[in-house]
Amino acid sequence: MGGNGKHRWKISFHRSSSQSSKLDPKLPPKEFTCPISGSLMFDPVVVASGQTFERLAVQVCKDLNFSPKQEDGTRPDFSTVIPNLALKTTILNWCDKSRSQHPRAPDYASLGGRVRQAMLLSVGQNQQEERQERIRVSETELLNAVPDNPPVIFSHAATELSPRVNHFNSGSSSEESVIILPSPGTPLPFTVRPTCFSSSSSCEIEIENPGAPVSEEEERILKKLKSSEVFEKEEGVIALRKITRSKVEARLLLCTPRVLLALRGLIASRYGVVQVNAVASLVNLSLEKQNKVKIVRSGFVPFLIDVLKGGLDESQEHAAGALFSLALDDDNKMAIGVLGALQPLIHSLRAESDRTRHDSALALYHLSLVQSNRVKLVKLGVVPTLLSMVVAGNLASQVLLILCNLAMCTEGRTAMLDANAVECLVGLLRTNELDSEAIRENCVAALFALSHRSLRFKGLAKDARVVEVLKEVEKTGTERAREKARKVLHMLRTVGDGGDDESDEFYDTVGLTRNRYRLGAGRNHNILNTTTF
């Protein structure tokens, strides 16, 4: 799943044709149609960047936080809209002269589906362009690099995420992601399977070789999934969930376009048993690496988002787990963010279910490894929420690592400094009442991320009396916490005094580059137990 370009986005997005308009006088001129909807505009508006769109299309794009790329390569600014009454009158006059029907008010749902198509298409194009612009390591190199990483302990009951280098730079910034290194003394419980693991879409699922033979197991399950009887659908999703819970080969063989197409519609079912077991089955299928991209590109993310927003409690647990599992694949991170999963995941951090909160936090951690998602999270105003959770002790270890990721971009550092993050983190370290050494270590790691070449940090740190706290960490903290504390203290002494050359020399001495920082958070020797159903 590297940069081989084998995966294709099968999406059809209608655009009006000026050539067709010349051939048929009844077709509206290109300037009368909305570039987003492809239809004659009912209520045209001029946006801040000068283009004209259908008003509802602009609203849908704003709701989905999406700015479509135009033919000239620019992206419109939807911050301001002004009614284009002159064009509206011209359109109506053209309709009367050509004896065409006046444009009808567009439907929000249909426009939403079209915009989601454009979003998926944009993700595919962006990923293809990025692969062409940079040299990517080959699949062989990636496989050869695996033995160099700490081993992953696999178990159907529980596993953990091995610390690994992020080979995939999906973001547009030169700054790289937070990299978690092993720290035997400070466990960080990151699993590679969701806590909930149970050992109409605008995206088109391409069925290759529709005449190919289907296994008896797949045929039996498909027959029930496609049945018009609710009881048989329930039997089908329960059977699929059961067989994919414990059999790896079943997860590989049953993740077919036919099964995915049938399963996708059942996730939106209003019948509780159907919905819960359909989402749980998707979690099981997503556990295999080769299935992850296939699932996202089959259009499941919008359905999972809808479940997170308004599904049954158990369905929400599984939906958060599915998004976490899918976010583990680097090729999915940008797509999941573009499709609007960040805001529902933020909201789910305060869910009643421990599983929903836990897997939502892990999903956000992995999604925030991508620069574009970091910027989106900052714009969504997540920083104050995360800081308040840290202070309250809610998922503090995981939330601190999300903050570490956000601090790797300029927007994130600015937002955290504005939210008084330095005083908050120093206050936590000063109390000495943290639940674990991992939380203490991650507090220091967050301070280190914020200190990167920042004169403002130096002033805030002085006000918060960070030096005395970090000196205490140097004496009593874990090895990695002491190392980070020393680096921050060194940074406080050098920032603004020695210029760029001195700063570069510092990064070289600690084994870092200007683009990559290794923030500590280690493996947990006490493997988390994941619940099976």
Automatic annotation (TrEMBL):
<dbReference type="InterPro" id="IPR011989">
    <property type="entry name" value="ARM-like"/>
</dbReference>
<comment type="function">
    <text>Functions as an E3 ubiquitin ligase.</text>
</comment>
<keyword id="KW-0677">Repeat</keyword>
<dbReference type="InterPro" id="IPR003613">
    <property type="entry name" value="Ubox_domain"/>
</dbReference>
<keyword id="KW-0808">Transferase</keyword>
<keyword id="KW-0833">Ubl conjugation pathway</keyword>
<dbReference type="InterPro" id="IPR016024">
    <property type="entry name" value="ARM-type_fold"/>
</dbReference>
<dbReference type="InterPro" id="IPR013083">
    <property type="entry name" value="Znf_RING/FYVE/PHD"/>
</dbReference>
<feature type="region of interest" description="Disordered">
    <location>
        <begin position="1"/>
        <end position="28"/>
    </location>
</feature>
<dbReference type="GO" id="GO:0061630">
    <property type="term" value="F:ubiquitin protein ligase activity"/>
</dbReference>
<feature type="compositionally biased region" description="Basic residues">
    <location>
        <begin position="1"/>
        <end position="13"/>
    </location>
</feature>
<dbReference type="InterPro" id="IPR000225">
    <property type="entry name" value="Armadillo"/>
</dbReference>
<feature type="domain" description="U-box">
    <location>
        <begin position="27"/>
        <end position="101"/>
    </location>
</feature>
<comment type="pathway">
    <text>Protein modification; protein ubiquitination.</text>
</comment>
<dbReference type="GO" id="GO:0016567">
    <property type="term" value="P:protein ubiquitination"/>
</dbReference>
<dbReference type="Pfam" id="PF04564">
    <property type="entry name" value="U-box"/>
</dbReference>
<protein>
    <recommendedName>
        <fullName>RING-type E3 ubiquitin transferase</fullName>
        <ecNumber>2.3.2.27</ecNumber>
    </recommendedName>
</protein>
